[in-house]
């Protein structure tokens, strides 16, 4: 989607653990410094059925951000939430590797505040998470990020004016 200077932003439709695992293994081989993945789970039934399999798929990621479940017009299932999925991730990874940031605007704000030279940001899922990738790519087109000699620690997200940036469409290659 965008390679600007030393930052790469990619949107990927993968939403099954095997697809996600293959994607992240390939992305990790690019040699970039930090692989940051924003995952939007797709459907409540799929999230319930595959919850225990998702964490392993993200092993190659340096940071995992879990967004709100994209329902695809499916009715919610009581107790099946992003926080439910997070409970599986927190058993598999050390504190700080996985974050729950439900709203797309807050995810964009967090990424803008924590992005560093060398980062690869992947938005992953079959819903509308591509809007975050598009907005981040638009933001980065004219930005120069400072080089960070080691993996930076990411501060907590803060609110900003990002909400208006979500008026783009997913680009599809045929």
The helix/strand series, from N terminus to C terminus, equals EEHEHHEHEHEH
What separation lies between the terminal Cα atoms? Answer: 14 Å
Counting structural domains, the number is 1
Query: On the 0-100 scale, what is the average pLDDT?
Result: 85
Count all strands and give the number.
6
What's the helix count? 6
Question: What is the helical fraction, as a range of percent?
Answer: 25-40%
Quote the CATH topology. Answer: Protein-Tyrosine Phosphatase, Chain A
- Low-confidence regions: 148-174
Q: Which structural class do you get from the secondary structure elements?
A: alpha/beta
Return the CATH class.
Alpha Beta
Task: Write out the strand line-up for the largest beta sheet, numbering strands in chain order.
Answer: 1-2-6-3-4-5
CATH superfamily: Mur ligase, C-terminal domain
Rg over C-alpha atoms, rounded to the nearest angstrom: 15 Å
Task: Offer a quick outline of the entry.
By secondary structure, the chain is α/β, with parallel strands linked by helices. It has helices at 17-28, 44-50, 54-57, 82-92, 104-114, 130-140; strands at residues 2-4, 7-12, 34-39, 63-66, 98-100, 119-124.
What structural keywords apply?
alpha/beta, 174 residues, 6 strands, six-stranded mixed beta sheet
